[in-house]
Automatic annotation (TrEMBL):
GO terms for cellular component: plasma membrane. Signal peptide: none annotated. The keyword Transport applies. Pfam families: MFS_1. It comes from Bacillus cereus. It is a multi-pass membrane protein. One of its GO terms (molecular function) is transmembrane transporter activity. The lineage of its organism: Bacteria, Bacillati, Bacillota, Bacilli, Bacillales. It is found in: Cell membrane. The keyword Membrane applies. This is MFS transporter. Keywords: Cell membrane, Membrane, Transmembrane, Transmembrane helix, Transport. SUPFAM superfamilies: MFS general substrate transporter.
Amino acid sequence: MVQYKNRLICADTLNTLGTAITWSGLPMFAFLSTGSYFFTGALYFTGTIAGILVGAFGSQLIDRYSPKKVTLTALMLNIIVVLLLYLGLTKEYFVLLIPVTIISQYLGALTSLSQKTWYNSLYKKDNLLKLMGQRSGWIVTAKTLGFTLGPLIFTTLNTNAILIDALSFFICFVCLINIPIKDALPKKDEKNRKKRPFEGLKALAFNSNVRPFSIIFFLEGMIMPIIMSTSIYALTKEFHFDSRDITLFWLIGGIGSILSNYFLVGSKLFTKNIFKGLFISGTLMSLGILIMTFTSNSVVYLCSFSFVTLTSPLLSTLSEKEAFIRIPDGDQAKTLGGLLSLSQIGTLLIMLISTLIVENFGYQSLFLLISMIAVIRFVVLIYVMKNEYLQNQQKYKLN
């Protein structure tokens, strides 16, 4: 079993690395090739659209069949799609860039959700937080490396860099194909095979134990994506950073996220006194955003950003773990897919209004709004955890 779990982590890490290289370098390549900001901006929205579509139409496939079947099928289809994207770009058919990218990101998001469900289902719920942190540590490391190398690789290899993504999908397929099907989630009966679209959102609406996490994930989607994208604007315009300095910004963010996940694995703070860990993480994150809002010093800005990237994954992983253990067996994928959709919808909504806020009131006003959202997310999470703790204490006394 251990070797299969490690192989899942390895495959997920390679998949993430190839994807990070492609989607950090491709927007820059599209701009240099077309001279149009439309393609560059649109490529950043394709991931959000794909996440919403997976939650609405794809996640129930994992519960309907099995994570292994869905993962392998999505990987093979994505190899074909990426090769079509490569051929289209070599022929300069840029009009196909957006629709093909949405399909590829949809398959990538479906693969990621399927692998996550597969991995989480193999562990006992008592050890899930630590082991989710272990998996996330490898994935964030791959993202950091991919985001750092992506623009450089595309500058050197041009369209040939896209083949790296196809190669990573193929290696993942080979890693996973001979894992016994018994190590996947059990097959569903015929009743559960008749799933409909939006089952994930319906599951959230009717499951009182998971419903509060709808608010948490919706608000969570409004925080980090907008901090990352707006920081590029702030560092470039206010602090006059060049491309080399921006690389340092990405590196600091990646290191913070990596340390966060290794902290989950090695520290006993969240297992011994979870409320203390929550309070420290939520406070540091809110203070970090506030300091980023008001500082006029680039070094202080970057240090504050490191606090945010250190604490945000702690809260996100804890939220995901607490949601997962409340989901009935066999419904994990569709419910996690519904939460993913809500998170991506939150990202889409905040992105739609962020430009208006920044242009009319400055990025500081947007960061103030984000800091308030972060506090609300933190308070709701504490409330949910507190209620669960009190209910367990009451059951213990009755017994």
